[in-house]
């Protein structure tokens, strides 16, 4: 049962305020420095218009688990840095070869491939430095757990693994649901999962609460990707801030291509119901996470 209080929760204002908070923190934690070119390139993609979903999930989860947003803010920034670097590298000519991202030309289009690769590398390494250096008020064992969980989510067990299988699957017509599931749970789901779980770890959540939040995150992570696949077909490039129809053009296996549009939407709805069921034991303190789950299926970009 979903708490009725979530229906009264003002998600629009919540997201706006949290986006403002995260963007101010990102701007402060990564100011322009020397050598100017690399910092300019890093900031170009990091501060471009994004939903800030991963940092917001981290803050919300930390608060649900009894912590403050302040203790999770450096980790929230790190999550956005990792996410941004994955977008920069994903857009490179050797990967997805995309010209447009977050409503502007992709990083390599502006700075060249060499600097774009280095900007991604620098964002990735700085993410871990930011957590380690800027989380002094949290016990060191929790910070260490967050660093280990993020490293695992990003490497060959997570984003990198998902991206590799995605690249290997390109142009093949025998990609089945199992492979698609692997790609998405690793390429997209792993970072969303660690976003939620890291907030809980920083707050000192019990193992039980961490697992409830992990289930919530896994469900919304998959739903997020199913909706992403649907939007690639149904939304315009203007709405998406990136090229639309790319999956179709590349004949990529997607949930709509394997299940059909209607069944894909039903699947996303079912995942969101399951996500909310995982946190049903909580009251109004879980309203942000419930509302974000609903937003994932309602979003237009
Ligand atoms: C992480 C070491 C390392 C390397 C990168 C390129 C790569 C390996 C992985 C690809 C990961 C990727 C781009 C997954 C897609 C995730 C996704 C659905 C992105 C869109 O997220 P939104 O809609 O974007 O939250 P905004 O711009 O709003 O933040």
From TrEMBL:
InterPro entries recorded: GGPPSyn_CRT-like (IPR054848), Isoprenoid_synthase_dom_sf (IPR008949), Polyprenyl_synt (IPR000092), Polyprenyl_synt_CS (IPR033749), Prenyl_diphosphate_synthase (IPR053378)
Entry keywords, A to Z: Isoprene biosynthesis, Magnesium, Metal-binding, Transferase
Gene3D superfamilies recorded: Farnesyl Diphosphate Synthase (1.10.600.10)
Annotated GO MF terms: dimethylallyltranstransferase activity; metal ion binding
GO cellular component terms given for this protein: cytoplasm
GO BP annotation list: terpenoid biosynthetic process
Pfam families: polyprenyl_synt
Keyword flag Magnesium: yes
Residues that, per the record, bind Mg(2+) 1: 90, 96, 98
Pathway annotation: Isoprenoid biosynthesis; geranyl diphosphate biosynthesis; geranyl diphosphate from dimethylallyl diphosphate and isopentenyl diphosphate: step 1/1
EC number: 2.5.1.1
Residues that coordinate or bind Mg(2+) 2: 229
Coiled coil: none
Catalytic activity of the protein: isopentenyl diphosphate + dimethylallyl diphosphate = (2E)-geranyl diphosphate + diphosphate
Cofactor: Mg(2+)
Similarity annotation: Belongs to the FPP/GGPP synthase family.
NCBIfam families per the UniProt record, alphabetical: FPPsyn, GGPPSynCrtE
Name recorded for this polypeptide: dimethylallyltranstransferase
Annotated organism of origin: Synechococcus elongatus (strain ATCC 33912 / PCC 7942 / FACHB-805)
């Amino acid at each position: 049962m979903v708490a009725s209080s979530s229906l009264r929760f003002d998600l629009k204002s919540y997201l706006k305020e949290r986006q403002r908070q995260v963007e101010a923190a990102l701007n402060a934690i990564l100011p322009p420095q020397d050598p100017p070119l690399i910092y300019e390139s890093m900031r170009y993609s990091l501060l471009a218009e994004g939903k800030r979903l991963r940092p917001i999930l981290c803050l919300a989860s930390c608060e649900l688990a009894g912590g403050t947003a302040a203790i999770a803010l450096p980790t929230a920034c790190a999550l956005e840095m990792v996410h941004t670097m994955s977008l920069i590298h994903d857009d490179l000519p050797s990967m997805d070869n995309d010209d447009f991202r977050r409503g502007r030309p992709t990083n390599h289009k502006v700075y060249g491939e060499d600097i774009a690769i280095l900007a991604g590398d620098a964002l990735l390494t700085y993410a871990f430095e930011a957590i380690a250096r800027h989380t002094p008020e949290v016990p060191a064992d929790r910070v260490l757990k967050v660093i280990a969980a993020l490293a695992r989510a990003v490497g060959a067990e997570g984003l990198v693994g998902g991206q590799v299988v995605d690249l290997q699957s390109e142009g093949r017509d025998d990609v089945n649901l199992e492979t698609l599931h692997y790609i998405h749970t690793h390429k997209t789901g792993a970072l969303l999962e660690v976003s939620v779980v890291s907030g809980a770890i920083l707050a000192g959540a019990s193992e039980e609460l961490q697992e409830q939040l992990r289930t919530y995150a896994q469900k919304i992570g998959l739903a997020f990707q199913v909706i992403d696949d649907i939007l690639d077909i149904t939304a315009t490039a203007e709405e998406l801030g990136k090229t639309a129809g790319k999956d179709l053009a590349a004949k990529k296996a997607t949930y709509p291509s394997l299940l059909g549009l209607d069944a894909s939407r039903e699947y996303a709805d079912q995942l969101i119901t399951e996500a909310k069921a995982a946190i049903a034991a909580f009251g109004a303190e879980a309203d942000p996470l419930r509302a974000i789950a609903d937003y994932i299926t309602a979003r237009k970009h």
